[in-house]
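By way of example, what follows is a protein record of this kind.
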Amino acid sequence: MFDFENLDSVTRASMLQAIEEADRTNNIYYSNRFNQAGKDQWLSLLKQAAEKHNEHWLAYQLEANALMKEFEGAHKPSGGYTIKHVPDTAAETMAEGQFNRFYILGLCKRARDEGISQLVIYRAKERSEPRPESQKLLGNRVSIEEVEAQLKRTKASFGSPLVKPNSGLSVKLG
């Protein structure tokens, strides 16, 4: 589970604003691994998680309500196509990444309101074997504008080291 250092009522309100803005601009990520019920319920669950829960609760909702597909198509390395099971970790990876994305965007809004121009990168979830590239980012200060440029648009967010699957990185006021 993540330890979001600044996850309080102020940040949660800013997270909800960030989610609503992303919804208005078609920047909510809907996983290809969602089934139709997952697509229908995702935005509501994401908002509920931001309002009063966390990424763990969000992953549990995806799993408990069977909102992910059981199977997906995949290309074989040797060519051709196959059907395989969706990984057991898909719900957790989705929930962690998107909750963290909107936590960070909410924290950017909060920092701006408080006259803070930079955030500090930290490890919010311990990893047994952290990536060297993630380790190099720890303690670095990053401008709010740079973070928002990475995370506001769904497609750009996929390249951000802050929400890379299984990195455990996030940001905090500091």
Observations:
- The chain has one domain: 9-70+82-172.
- Helices lie at 9-24, 36-52, 55-64, 90-113, 132-137, 144-151, 154-157.
- The mean pLDDT is 96.
- Residues 30 and 37 are 12 Å apart (CA to CA).
